[in-house]
Amino acid sequence: MSQQPRVLPRSRQRAATVLVAAVAMSIGAVVGPSSTAGAVGGAVDGAAGNWAARPYQAVDLGFAATEWSLAINDRGQVVGGGYRWQAGQLSPLGAPAGYQSFGAREINEAGTVLGNAITTSGLSQVAVWQRGTFTPIEIPDAGSSYAISINDRGVVFGTTEVTSPDQSFLWHRGTLTMLWHNNAYAAQVGINNWGDLVGEYEPTPGYPCNCRGAR
Q: 178: burial class by Cβ within 10 Å (0-12, 13-18, 19+)?
């Protein structure tokens, strides 16, 4: 008789989420099948992908990060905070010249890291790390800008405080494309390899917004 999955009560669900976040913050852990001797990822059992039948173990990555700054790609490369981890090797990403620090947010399949660099005045500026080289994304007349997502083509999706509320933008190989003005209730989420954008938007009188895909 197969065992049915146990659904946690709502109060326990929040506790479980907090526990996962706490583990990530304290040890920077990634979970992988134990049959791979601690490596990230692993083979899928059957065409349907029977992951439930495979035991997992946690691997201490050796750095601290929050759940908002941990990401992994299909090559098993992990980024979090100011670090990059692959196959047991931990490397600090550093920061762009003239900046205080850099915090990773996402990594694509090419190994390009997207994150936020902190200026000497404490402002956030979106920056891309690729093979040891940083490229800060400069937006004219902007205060802070914030990284959201990067696809496998290297197209960056972000928001900037060039207006209030903020404004979304795309950046690719030096070309900046300003998009729509958000409202106070908008949340931008991600971009796929086709260039489709996804987010959350709640229409509110006084905050017009043209929310549309951009390719």
A: middle
